[in-house]
């Protein structure tokens, strides 16, 4: 494989030593560390960004938010993988909601980052073991917006789509769009599974 065929990876971390170590790790794994930056502004203006297939982004960028950078990179069509010390479930979920294709915590082994890069470049979502464990602790209240939580509660009461739409004064099609987003956030396979989960959660709150 020639150097030009290697996947080009852009690195964003506010610690130069971390970026240097990551660049060495990725080069050894057959990737091309195309460029690096320590903040959002330098990232977006860097000439190497446009030719890169993936950005590995830390969430702590000094006074800046890596979440905002993920959104901006996403709008440019860039695939983003988060590599961060943050292991809180809410932070991980926010990064995924912002458009990150995967999340690896910095306490994982180096092979986890390499596996994650290969996965997201292949169009798959990747969560490192610690990130996946953290998300398993999330409740619907943690991941759903106010309107989504209301719909989830009504589903838990056994109401039909028509009844929920009428109560919320929205169309059934709009309700179905909300449900699709809820399914994605809760990583459920279909509306039947969503209803069963909502009813179980409603019963546990009684």
Can you put this structure into words, describing what you see?
A hairpin with a 2-residue loop joins strand 4 and strand 5. The strands form two sheets. This protein has a six-stranded parallel β-sheet, with helices on both faces. It is built from eleven helices and eight strands. The chain folds into two domains: 3-136, 3-Layer(aba) Sandwich (Rossmann fold); 140-204, Arc Repressor Mutant, subunit A (Orthogonal Bundle). It is α/β, with parallel strands linked by helices and 206 residues long. The protein is elongated. Helix 4 crosses helix 6, helix 8 (146-156) packs across helix 11 (191-204) and helix 9 packs across helix 10 (172-186). The model has no long low-confidence stretch (mean pLDDT 90). Helices cover 54% and strands 15% of the residues.
Question: What is the structure about, briefly put?
Answer:
With 206 residues, the chain is of the alpha/beta class.
| Mass-distribution shape | elongated
Proportion in helices: 40-55%
Number of strands: 8
Q: N-to-C SSE series?
A: EHEHEEEHEHEHEHHHHHH
What fraction of residues sit in β-strands? 15-25%
Q: Which strand order does the major sheet show?
A: 2-1-3-6-7-8
CATH superfamily of the largest domain: Response regulator
Question: Which class do the helix and strand fractions yield?
Answer: alpha/beta
- Which sheet architecture does the biggest sheet show? 6 strands, parallel
The low-confidence parts are none
Class of the largest domain, according to the CATH hierarchy?
A: Alpha Beta
User: What's the architecture of the largest domain in CATH terms?
Assistant: 3-Layer(aba) Sandwich
Rg (CA only): 20 Å
Mean pLDDT, rounded to whole units?
90
CATH topology of the largest domain: Rossmann fold
**What count of domains describes the coordinates?**
2
Tell me the span between the first and last alpha carbons: 61 Å
Helical run tally: 11
């Amino acid at each position: 494989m020639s150097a030009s065929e290697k996947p080009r990876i852009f690195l964003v971390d506010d610690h130069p030593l971390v970026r240097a170590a990551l660049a060495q790790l990725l080069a050894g794994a057959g990737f091309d560390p195309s460029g690096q930056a320590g903040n959002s502004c330098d990232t977006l203006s860097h000439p190497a960004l446009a030719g890169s297939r993936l950005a590995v982004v830390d969430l702590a960028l000094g006074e800046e938010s890596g979440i905002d950078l993920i959104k901006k990179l996403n709008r440019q069509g860039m695939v983003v993988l988060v590599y961060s010390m943050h292991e809180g479930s809410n932070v991980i979920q926010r990064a995924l909601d912002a458009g990150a294709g995967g999340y690896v915590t910095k306490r994982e082994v180096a092979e986890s980052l390499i596996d994650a890069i290969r996965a997201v470049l292949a169009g798959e979502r990747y969560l490192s073991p610690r990130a996946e464990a953290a998300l398993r602790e999330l409740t619907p209240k943690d991941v759903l917006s106010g309107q989504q939580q209301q719909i989830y509660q009504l589903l838990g009461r056994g109401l039909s789509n028509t009844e929920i739409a009428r109560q919320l004064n929205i169309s059934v099609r709009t309700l179905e769009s909300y449900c699709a987003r809820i399914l994605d956030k809760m990583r459920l396979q279909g509306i039947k599974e969503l209803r069963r989960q909502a009813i179980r959660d409603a019963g546990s709150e009684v």
